[in-house]
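Extended Data, panel c. Modelled sequence:
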Amino acid sequence: MSLPQHVHTLVVGAGFAGMGLAARILRSGPEADVLIIERGHDVGGTWRDNTYPGCACDVPTSLYSFSFAPSADWSHTFARQPEIYRYLKKVAADTGILSRVVTDCALEQADWDDAKAVWHVRTSRGSLTADVVVAATGALSTPSIPDMPGLDTFGGTTFHSATWNHDHDLTGERVAVIGTGASAVQFVPEIAPRAKHVTVFQRTPAWVIPRLDRVLSDPEKRLYRRMPLVQKAVRGSVYSFREALGGVLAHATGLLPLFEMVAKAHLRRQVRDPELRRKLTPDFTIGCKRMLLSNDWLRTLDRPDVTLVDAGLAGITEDGVVDAVGNEHKVDTIIFATGFTPTEPPVAHALRGTDGHTLAEHWKGSPHAYKGTTVTGFPNLFLMYGPNTNLGHSSIVYMLESQSAYITDALDAMRDNDIAAFEVTEEAQRRYNARIQSGLQSTVWNKGGCSSWYYDAEGRNSVQWPTFTFRFRSQLQRFDRENYVARRKSEQEAVA
């Protein structure tokens, strides 16, 4: 599919966010002028790209799926990457999204033309204009690799977990894993049995609790197919439980010691060595950083052919990794499990607003937006999974569907009221972010005694949503025109 010269709504990214929005737009009007550009070869976003061994969702799939596209085909309560990817491809085909997607098409730059009230967009496959741009590129889409001394001299193989090198066989190799986050806890247990030795470099330990995963039986699947309301009820019960968990994290931190007891019991059961248990016990309140779900991570670290190094890193040599106390660990392969760049999204460098400055320049390392969705100075731009929309307890898909409803309502308002451009007021954005930051002050993410990727360059928590997700949905259930400056098409034509 080639690019048109002009499109009304241009969506950047074909993962959960972009697909969910496009599907909603098409449900409200199949004739809608909407196009998705995707830098990858297919839809699926992070579930297309992250193919490392053991990759799976850490939110129950009954909730981590579109409400408008339930599936009775999940194999486990926590789905694995291949089936989530298959699910997204099926949704794209069933909803008609595929005919609106241009793949292998990366956004290079988008400039707002205030005189004409359009975006001038340059992509890797050509240029076009758009009335509206939606950045649905995700917060966890661009791998972060630390700038480590000597990395360019290493003679072995290196790659990030998000860009797994499947052509490289780890059998019999000495492998260094940098990082102990959500991806490491999934792939290290998978590679340890076939590697000669795995050395895991830990900056800070994380609280780990069991993943209550199970296989979904054939009778359950048949029941879901025959009685969809049962599956809907299960989704509702999972959502309610997760909201209760969110309440504990955000408002009832006095209950967190109960979760800590579970995590410590899990650690005692799986790790025999008391010194190793000490290294794996965090010194911050549980929940301050993302709690990790795993039934085999801790047990794997207790293997004789796995070493945990908690001394930090000093650099890399031609054939090894040097820790902070000067010990060199000889390795053949280095795998970075160092996460992504949620507070420095690359798409922010490609978007230029009314004053000619990029969104990244406006943010200066500290992202902020109105309802995580719009930004003053950037008319007709909508963000999905924007600042302060991340969760520590529930499914981001719920938040994305809430944003989809808000954006679709805004598009309807533009059409029905002859609006050329909407821009959120600076005062509305300022008040909103003040409330968000105030709400975060009492949460475990802010006062739990840890440093995390939730904090940006200014020390603000610009990532987390501070309270219940139903409150977010309530705020985004309608497009609040009163907090925007609107420019009618007739006014725009008069100016032109």
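The chain has a mean pLDDT of 93. This feature is highlighted in the accompanying rendering.
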